[in-house]
Specification:
Layout: H1 2-26, E1 28-29, E2 41-42, H2 46-60, H3 69-91, H4 96-112, H5 127-147, H6 154-172, H7 177-197, H8 207-226, H9 230-235, H10 238-253, H11 266-272, H12 277-297, H13 308-326
Antiparallel strand pairs: 1-2
Helix pairs in contact: 1-2, 1-7, 2-3, 2-7, 2-8, 3-4, 3-8, 4-5, 5-8, 5-10, 6-7, 6-8, 6-12, 7-8, 10-13, 11-13, 12-13
């Protein structure tokens, strides 16, 4: 399984580089008033990530318990459909209603393949309510992952934290080394893309990368919640969850069209107020390391801090967002 993770990462690294000349001809991202970059840069690098990631996950299904195979088969099929649609959107923007409808259908399809006894809220809610809340949360995560992909390195770092965090918890807390391997492949392919996406980026993920990574990362977090560790599943991606949600509510309050591009995320404000892309992404990486540690500690048999880990993570996230809002002069 470790060999598969390494080969998947290597494939992502090499294929992304191989695709770069073609992406420069077919999918250039020209800076505009809402951009955080100033140099035309190709987008669609997520194709290279997926070419390494999806075969890796398919190979890992050999070690996966049979009860998970229908769900995983549905997940990989849904990912391919979303990747195809998202790449079309990268080249020629599609109406938000179409993208949203296909995302809903994809998530609903995967959830219908999930065994009835696999419940996020551990039986505290009826099956239909559990699935509905899970689906809405997953749909929001797919979109917020896409929204947050706005500066160099940020989404590769976030995906790496999700992959490593869920892998650590699966292995150390639940001894599910099969699930841990999925997280390692996910993190490895994200790290490989970081080679091309670190500031100044040679290529962007594009929707073809951020939307499928949101779907697959959401599934990894869902597995953590299904195992009885909902607080840990919420703690790991806390920066993305809070920044995206607060910004969305803020924009809605101001009467903006929330589906349109903008520059109001806290990490974008940090860049506007003096931080470099690298400085912002490194600070988020540091926060993510703390969040992974808190999530893991929440399940430790001795420490067992439980939901306190989520509360501490919220405090740390709020502190970093305040630094970003104030800008470099106040840091």
């Amino acid at each position: 399984m470790l060999l598969i993770a390494a080969l998947s990462a290597l494939a992502s690294l090499l294929v992304t580089g191989w695709l770069l000349p073609w992406l420069r001809r077919k999918a250039m991202d020209r800076p505009n008033a809402r951009s955080s970059h100033v140099v035309p840069t190709p987008r669609g690098g997520g194709l290279g990530v997926l070419i390494g990631l999806l075969p890796g996950w398919a190979a890992l299904m050999v070690w996966t318990p049979g009860t998970l195979l229908p769900e995983l088969t549905a997940l990989l099929s849904a990912t391919i459909v979303l990747a195809w649609l998202s790449f079309r959107d990268d080249r020629k923007p599609l109406p938000p209603s179409i993208r949203f409808a296909v995302q809903i259908a994809a998530i609903a399809f995967v959830l219908t393949m999930q065994a009835p006894d696999r419940l996020v809220f551990q039986g505290a809610l009826p099956l239909l309510a559990d699935r509905l809340i899970t689906g809405i949360g997953w749909l929001w995560f797919v979109n917020l992952f896409n929204f947050m992909d706005g500066i160099d390195g940020i989404s590769a770092i976030e995906a790496g934290a999700i992959g490593l965090g869920t892998a650590l918890i699966a292995a150390l807390a639940f001894f599910r080394f099969d699930l841990a391997a999925f997280g390692l492949v996910y993190a490895g392919c994200a790290a490989a893309f970081l080679w091309w996406n670190w500031h100044p980026a040679k290529v962007f993920l594009g929707d073809v990368g951020s939307v499928p990574l949101g779907l697959l990362g959401g599934w990894l977090l869902l597995q953590t919640a299904l195992a009885g560790a909902l607080s840990a599943a919420l703690t790991i991606p806390l920066y993305y969850l809070v920044d995206a949600t607060v910004t969305l509510l803020w924009r809605a309050y101001d009467g903006e069209k929330i589906w349109q591009p903008h520059r109001r995320h806290f990490y974008q404000k940090a860049v506007q107020r003096g931080f470099s892309h690298s400085a912002v992404s490194l600070r988020i990486a540091g926060l993510n390391a703390l969040l992974v540690a808190l999530a893991t500690a929440s399940l430790h048999p001795i420490l067992g801090i439980g939901w306190t880990g989520l509360a501490l993570g919220l405090c740390a996230t709020a502190a970093l967002m305040r630094v970003f809002a104030q800008g470099r002069g106040a840091a």
